[in-house]
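Worked problem 6 (solution included).
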Amino acid sequence: MPVGKPRMAAALVLVATVSLSATLSGCGVSIVASGPTTKVSQSAGAGAASSSASASPSAIPPSGMTPTGTPAPQRMAAQWKTYVDQGKSVSFELPSDWTIALVAGTSGSLQVVEVRDAAGTKMATLTTGGGGLGGACGPDTQRPYTVLASVPLGIPTFSKDPAAVDPRFVYRLIQGANSFFASYGIADHPAGADGMACLFYNTVTTAKLGLVSFGDVVQLRSDPEGTPGTRAFASIADAQAYMQTAEYQNIQRMITSVKLLS
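Solution. The predicted structure is:
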């Protein structure tokens, strides 16, 4: 069954995203080339049961997926470069043909950068210096969710919430009305209890940068029609198959390389 590309206008809770992007030349941002890297290991098991839910009518395959959801034979990027923000507070690696744009209109310590692939499709957004998060669960909004990948990161959390966990890269999906909606990013909190959730965040609380988000969206909600900016899959098996594509492997390799420099 077909699966969906990221929806347009990803909903950032930390900041109202503006459409104007400025290139990073002359902004004190450094990008240096790095050598080839090895393939990222996958933490999700194969062979999960397929759901009978049908994909949304507008869904189209992400890069590297055939219309049936079968992974195309692809390899992760061979050449990588390193991005360092202008405050020299955070860095990560990305494929050499991907680009970074600083989102204009932010103020104070808040900084938002978008990462796009060679075709210009947004793959992730890094937000640093963010404040508190909004969002609440209404009655009867809990839906089943599944964690397909959970990779520990080498950064600490400074969350005072007793429910906080060690920061990690996560690839999670939640069941919608007719599709499964998947989201990836860094997190220091579990999605919910007993396999049910109404919303979860791709954020980590840091000592000097405030709330940091690095993923496709900041918040994934249990909206039956999905959260803008996420991918839709017809089944859990299709969401697992996407993990075998070069696109996903590049994303996971990039996000798990994030480092706090100060």
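Discussion: The radius of gyration is 17 Å.
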